[in-house]
Give the backbone structure.
Amino acid sequence: MRRSASTIALLLVAAVLAACAVPQDAASETTPAPAATASPTPTPTPTLSLAPGQPAGSDPDDPSTWLLTNDAVGPYQLGMPFADSLAVASGFEDACGYAYFREFDPAIWQGEVWIAERDDKLFVVMTGDPDGPRTVEGIRVGSTTADVIAAYPDAVVVYRNLPYLRSGNLFFGFRSDVMYPTDPSPYQDGGVPEEIVTVGATTWDQVLWEFCG
Protein backbone atom coordinates (compact mmCIF):
# COMPACT_ATOMS: atom_id res chain seq x y z
CA MET A 1 0.00 0.00 0.00
CA ARG A 2 1.39 3.39 -1.02
CA ARG A 3 1.56 6.14 1.58
CA SER A 4 1.29 9.75 0.75
CA ALA A 5 4.32 12.06 1.00
CA SER A 6 2.68 14.07 3.78
CA THR A 7 2.16 10.96 5.90
CA ILE A 8 5.81 9.94 5.53
CA ALA A 9 6.96 13.45 6.54
CA LEU A 10 4.87 13.40 9.71
CA LEU A 11 6.30 10.01 10.68
CA LEU A 12 9.90 11.32 10.27
CA VAL A 13 9.20 14.41 12.47
CA ALA A 14 7.69 12.23 15.20
CA ALA A 15 10.75 9.94 15.16
CA VAL A 16 13.16 12.87 15.52
CA LEU A 17 11.18 14.34 18.44
CA ALA A 18 11.09 11.02 20.20
CA ALA A 19 14.87 10.62 19.89
CA CYS A 20 15.54 14.08 21.39
CA ALA A 21 13.15 13.80 24.34
CA VAL A 22 14.69 13.43 27.87
CA PRO A 23 12.88 10.95 30.08
CA GLN A 24 11.17 12.57 33.09
CA ASP A 25 12.82 10.13 35.50
CA ALA A 26 16.32 10.93 34.20
CA ALA A 27 15.80 14.68 34.67
CA SER A 28 14.67 14.18 38.25
CA GLU A 29 17.81 12.18 39.12
CA THR A 30 20.15 15.22 38.67
CA THR A 31 22.19 15.64 41.94
CA PRO A 32 22.23 19.24 43.22
CA ALA A 33 25.59 20.79 44.13
CA PRO A 34 26.30 20.71 47.88
CA ALA A 35 25.74 23.99 49.70
CA ALA A 36 28.93 25.79 50.68
CA THR A 37 29.61 25.92 54.43
CA ALA A 38 31.72 28.65 56.01
CA SER A 39 34.64 27.50 58.16
CA PRO A 40 34.60 29.01 61.68
CA THR A 41 37.09 31.85 62.10
CA PRO A 42 39.56 31.01 64.89
CA THR A 43 39.64 33.47 67.76
CA PRO A 44 43.10 35.10 67.89
CA THR A 45 45.06 34.60 71.09
CA PRO A 46 45.81 37.99 72.70
CA THR A 47 49.49 38.78 72.98
CA LEU A 48 51.19 41.20 75.34
CA SER A 49 53.27 43.75 73.50
CA LEU A 50 56.21 45.70 74.85
CA ALA A 51 56.68 49.40 74.32
CA PRO A 52 58.83 50.44 71.35
CA GLY A 53 62.57 50.31 71.96
CA GLN A 54 62.47 47.55 74.57
CA PRO A 55 65.16 44.84 74.40
CA ALA A 56 64.40 41.59 72.63
CA GLY A 57 63.29 38.99 75.14
CA SER A 58 61.79 41.49 77.60
CA ASP A 59 59.04 39.97 79.72
CA PRO A 60 56.00 42.09 80.70
CA ASP A 61 55.90 40.21 84.01
CA ASP A 62 59.62 40.54 84.81
CA PRO A 63 60.79 44.09 85.68
CA SER A 64 64.44 42.99 85.63
CA THR A 65 64.13 42.76 81.84
CA TRP A 66 62.59 46.22 81.39
CA LEU A 67 64.41 49.18 79.89
CA LEU A 68 63.72 52.60 81.42
CA THR A 69 63.51 55.24 78.69
CA ASN A 70 62.20 58.78 78.34
CA ASP A 71 58.95 57.42 76.90
CA ALA A 72 58.40 54.05 78.53
CA VAL A 73 59.24 51.64 81.32
CA GLY A 74 59.22 48.09 80.00
CA PRO A 75 55.75 47.46 78.58
CA TYR A 76 54.35 50.77 79.84
CA GLN A 77 54.27 53.52 77.23
CA LEU A 78 53.63 56.94 78.75
CA GLY A 79 50.35 58.28 77.37
CA MET A 80 48.86 54.85 76.59
CA PRO A 81 45.22 54.25 77.60
CA PHE A 82 45.28 53.43 81.30
CA ALA A 83 42.95 50.47 80.83
CA ASP A 84 45.49 48.97 78.42
CA SER A 85 48.32 49.50 80.89
CA LEU A 86 46.45 47.48 83.53
CA ALA A 87 46.07 44.62 81.05
CA VAL A 88 49.76 44.49 80.14
CA ALA A 89 51.05 42.64 83.20
CA SER A 90 49.41 40.78 86.04
CA GLY A 91 49.12 41.54 89.73
CA PHE A 92 48.05 45.20 89.92
CA GLU A 93 45.65 46.30 92.63
CA ASP A 94 43.66 49.53 92.95
CA ALA A 95 45.38 51.71 95.54
CA CYS A 96 43.23 54.85 95.59
CA GLY A 97 41.07 55.08 92.50
CA TYR A 98 43.65 56.42 90.09
CA ALA A 99 46.92 54.75 91.12
CA TYR A 100 47.68 51.05 91.00
CA PHE A 101 50.47 49.13 92.65
CA ARG A 102 51.93 45.71 92.10
CA GLU A 103 53.78 43.92 94.90
CA PHE A 104 56.76 41.72 94.14
CA ASP A 105 57.88 41.27 97.75
CA PRO A 106 55.31 42.22 100.42
CA ALA A 107 58.07 42.47 103.04
CA ILE A 108 59.69 45.56 101.51
CA TRP A 109 58.34 48.64 99.75
CA GLN A 110 61.05 48.29 97.11
CA GLY A 111 59.17 45.30 95.75
CA GLU A 112 56.42 47.43 94.19
CA VAL A 113 55.74 49.03 90.84
CA TRP A 114 53.34 51.98 90.79
CA ILE A 115 51.40 53.30 87.81
CA ALA A 116 48.85 56.12 87.76
CA GLU A 117 46.46 57.79 85.35
CA ARG A 118 45.45 61.31 84.47
CA ASP A 119 42.58 61.87 82.02
CA ASP A 120 42.45 58.08 81.48
CA LYS A 121 46.07 58.04 80.25
CA LEU A 122 49.11 56.50 81.90
CA PHE A 123 51.36 59.36 83.00
CA VAL A 124 53.79 57.88 85.51
CA VAL A 125 55.55 54.59 86.27
CA MET A 126 57.73 54.29 89.37
CA THR A 127 59.48 51.44 91.16
CA GLY A 128 61.92 50.88 93.98
CA ASP A 129 62.57 47.30 92.93
CA PRO A 130 66.34 46.63 93.26
CA ASP A 131 66.01 44.01 90.54
CA GLY A 132 63.85 46.27 88.39
CA PRO A 133 64.32 48.31 85.21
CA ARG A 134 67.48 50.09 84.11
CA THR A 135 68.34 52.80 81.63
CA VAL A 136 70.46 52.08 78.56
CA GLU A 137 73.39 53.51 80.57
CA GLY A 138 72.70 50.97 83.33
CA ILE A 139 71.21 53.36 85.91
CA ARG A 140 68.81 51.53 88.24
CA VAL A 141 67.89 51.24 91.92
CA GLY A 142 71.20 50.82 93.72
CA SER A 143 73.10 53.20 91.45
CA THR A 144 74.30 56.51 92.93
CA THR A 145 73.62 60.16 92.29
CA ALA A 146 77.14 60.36 90.86
CA ASP A 147 76.23 57.67 88.33
CA VAL A 148 73.13 59.64 87.32
CA ILE A 149 75.05 62.91 86.89
CA ALA A 150 77.68 61.13 84.79
CA ALA A 151 75.00 59.62 82.54
CA TYR A 152 72.73 62.70 82.47
CA PRO A 153 74.76 65.91 82.98
CA ASP A 154 71.58 67.98 82.58
CA ALA A 155 69.86 66.30 85.55
CA VAL A 156 68.58 68.70 88.23
CA VAL A 157 67.24 68.10 91.70
CA VAL A 158 63.50 68.41 92.26
CA TYR A 159 61.87 67.85 95.61
CA ARG A 160 58.68 66.02 96.48
CA ASN A 161 58.90 64.54 100.00
CA LEU A 162 62.22 63.12 98.81
CA PRO A 163 64.80 64.64 96.47
CA TYR A 164 64.89 63.39 92.89
CA LEU A 165 67.31 63.87 90.06
CA ARG A 166 65.33 64.49 86.90
CA SER A 167 66.40 64.49 83.27
CA GLY A 168 63.61 64.86 80.72
CA ASN A 169 60.88 62.43 81.77
CA LEU A 170 63.30 60.26 83.74
CA PHE A 171 63.57 60.59 87.51
CA PHE A 172 65.81 58.99 90.13
CA GLY A 173 64.93 59.31 93.82
CA PHE A 174 67.49 59.31 96.63
CA ARG A 175 67.40 59.81 100.39
CA SER A 176 69.00 62.78 102.07
CA ASP A 177 68.60 64.88 105.23
CA VAL A 178 69.24 68.05 103.22
CA MET A 179 66.41 70.02 101.62
CA TYR A 180 66.81 70.76 97.92
CA PRO A 181 64.47 73.66 97.10
CA THR A 182 66.46 75.11 94.19
CA ASP A 183 70.07 73.94 94.24
CA PRO A 184 70.66 71.45 91.40
CA SER A 185 73.66 69.84 93.11
CA PRO A 186 73.07 66.38 94.64
CA TYR A 187 76.20 66.73 96.78
CA GLN A 188 75.03 69.10 99.53
CA ASP A 189 75.03 66.31 102.09
CA GLY A 190 78.77 66.24 102.78
CA GLY A 191 79.64 65.73 99.12
CA VAL A 192 78.92 62.00 99.37
CA PRO A 193 77.00 60.42 96.47
CA GLU A 194 73.63 59.08 97.55
CA GLU A 195 72.13 55.74 96.61
CA ILE A 196 69.24 55.75 94.14
CA VAL A 197 66.18 54.20 95.77
CA THR A 198 63.48 54.78 93.14
CA VAL A 199 63.45 55.11 89.36
CA GLY A 200 60.73 55.93 86.88
CA ALA A 201 59.36 58.11 84.13
CA THR A 202 56.57 60.68 84.06
CA THR A 203 55.09 63.26 81.73
CA TRP A 204 53.96 65.40 84.69
CA ASP A 205 55.89 68.48 85.76
CA GLN A 206 56.27 67.06 89.26
CA VAL A 207 57.55 63.74 90.54
CA LEU A 208 54.98 61.93 92.64
CA TRP A 209 55.98 60.23 95.86
CA GLU A 210 52.69 59.82 97.65
CA PHE A 211 50.37 58.65 94.91
CA CYS A 212 47.30 58.86 97.10
CA GLY A 213 48.28 61.81 99.27
